[in-house]
Amino acid sequence: MIEFKSVHFSYDERPILKNVTFRVGESESLVIMGPSGSGKSTILRLILGLECPQQGQILIDGQNVCTMRERQKQEIRKKIGMVFQDGALFDSLSVWENVGYYLLEHSSLSVDEVGERAIKMLGFVGLDAAEIMDKLPEHLSGGMQRRVAIGRALLSTDPKIMLYDEPTTGLDPQSAENVITLINRLHDEKSISSIVVTHQIADAISIGDRFVVIVDGEVVFDGDLRQLRDSEDPRVLLFLAPFRLSIAEVADKRFVNKQ
Ligand SMILES: Nc1ncnc2c1ncn2[C@@H]1O[C@H](COP(=O)(O)OP(=O)(O)O)[C@@H](O)[C@H]1O
Ligand SMILES: [Mg+2]
């Protein structure tokens, strides 16, 4: 469904991604991990077609985003929902207007109809619509803002793929847990494929079917949890060193639960 084929990408001659190859299948949930500055957010920007690689290809449902016409690009983007690292809500719009933004701008639905859908969506992402819909985002906690951002992405275009950039960074443990539960629920109930960028290993483990580890713009690992736990690649070990024990523990627990 999304495929990177030997992608090389540079900013101003500075190589950021080097020969990156991976794919994400339908209703798969891929976690991309790696140290800060390794190129994770860049991968998401490339998927959205906001940048194009100097070499290699990025295919979405078999189509190359970078060679498409603008109209086609917009069609492809409709399949993809993006939740940016900081939520990126519109400060001056109320919560419900944020959630309904796309429909208010791009559909023929009346304001009341959009409002109804926004209220439903707020409920779906676990928020009390009556309580918060008329507030400005700044009056919500970080965790609530993140859920509003997810609701906005879902209501926009009914995406088949969701991209999340560091969805739990800066959240307290309970809010982080709520966001993770929501991401997993979307994946399980709506068969939405997800690509989640994170450097929080516990989140990664509770979300991913598959894991890609990227270090200095290179994919140094691509596999499942068991393979990750057992990897002996020195670059993977170096990245995972601080989390090694917890990975083994959680991985064992997960395997036991699945048996
Ligand atoms: N717009 C930009 N112009 C130039 N360099 C950038 C730009 N955006 C990111 N970079 C650089 O690209 C590298 C990878 O960034 P990024 O993909 O954001 O990493 P990550 O998300 O893994 O922390 C970093 O060294 C960063 O400084
Ligand atoms: Mg980033």
Structure, described:
With 259 residues, the protein is an alpha/beta fold. Helices cover 44% and strands 23% of the residues. It is built from twelve helices and ten strands. Helix 5 (111-124) crosses helix 7 (142-157) and helix 7 runs parallel beside helix 8 (173-190). The radius of gyration is 19 Å and the shape is globular. The chain binds adenosine-5'-diphosphate and magnesium ion. Adenosine-5'-diphosphate binds next to helix 1.
Notable traits:
single chain, alpha/beta, 6-stranded mixed β-sheet, 4-stranded antiparallel β-sheet, binds adenosine-5'-diphosphate, binds magnesium ion
Strand order of the largest sheet: 6-7-8-3-9-10
Mean pLDDT across all amino acids: 89
Structural class per helix/strand content?
alpha/beta
Number of helices: 12
Helix/strand order: EEEHEEHEHHHHHEHEHEEHHH
Could you tell me the strand content as a percent range? Answer: 15-25%
Bound molecules: adenosine-5'-diphosphate, magnesium ion
What are the segments in which pLDDT stays under 50 over at least 5 consecutive residues? none
Compute the number of strand runs.
10
| Amount of helix | 40-55%
- Rounded to an integer in angstroms, the radius of gyration calculated over CA atoms is 19 Å
**Biggest sheet, in brief?**
6 strands, mixed
